[in-house]
Amino acid sequence: MKPKNETEKIILGVDPGTQIMGYGVLLVKGNEVTILQFGIIRLSKYAGHELRLKKIFDRIVQIIDEFNPDEMALEAPFYGKNVQSMLKLGRAQGVAMAAALSRDIPITEYMPKKVKQSVTGNGNASKEQVASMMKTLLKFETKPEFLDATDALAVALCHHYSKRSPRGSNSSWVKFLQENPGRVMGDSDQRKPSGK
Question: 75 catalytic, yes or no?
Fold first, then answer.
């Protein structure tokens, strides 16, 4: 991919999932936002959870290498009653984050209500309403087979709106790591026993 000029930014949006993971890549030039690509990563065809995690990592790295995004935005998992489902979803999100970090891409998380509020004006909007708004705002005709793809576009667009606002977003992992160097331990670090 050719180098971007200084006024351009590419945002990768990801809607984590354990059966289907949505992704969307947006190009921002000033106030103009266009889609470079969006789609899904089908994970249900892989029998083991570990194989699904490997597929997520490999495919996200492939997308990053192809489009060279400046930033990644992820939808944070919502809290559900099924602990096993939450654990698997958290792992899927973590692997997507690890793929971005392996390429030094800054990551920001957004709660589902924040994404919906940002792009539709309604924090309780349905997936169908989000998809409809994405078609209007980003001017595309093709109806995606799965709404996970338009959800991912919505996460990327929410990120763009958030960064454009004077307050910005304070949930960037890179910012967290910079501000809390002692809170994250490397492989070679060893924990000291507390109180001894």
Answer: yes
Secondary structure (3-state) at 38 = strand
Strands annotated E in 19-159: 20-29, 32-42, 71-75, 107-110
Residue 51 covered by a domain: yes
CATH number of the domain enclosing 53? 3.30.420.10
Can you give the pLDDT at residue 163? 78
Q: Active site includes 151?
A: no
* Buried residues in 71-103 as b, exposed as e (16+ CB within 10 A): bbbbbbbeeeeeeeeeebbebbbebbbebbeee
What DSSP assignment string belongs to 105-131?
--EEEE-HHHHHHHHHS-TT--HHHHH
Q: Which residues pair with 75 in a beta bridge?
A: 110
* From 71, 109, 148, 151, the catalytic residue: 148
pTM higher than 0.90: no
Structural domain includes residue 186: no
Candidate list 15, 71, 109, 151, residue with the active-site label: 15
Is 109 among the catalytic positions?
no
Question: Which residue range(s) make up the domain with 68?
Answer: 8-177
Mean of the pLDDT values across residues 113-134? 92
- From 6, 65, 66, 75, active-site residue: 75
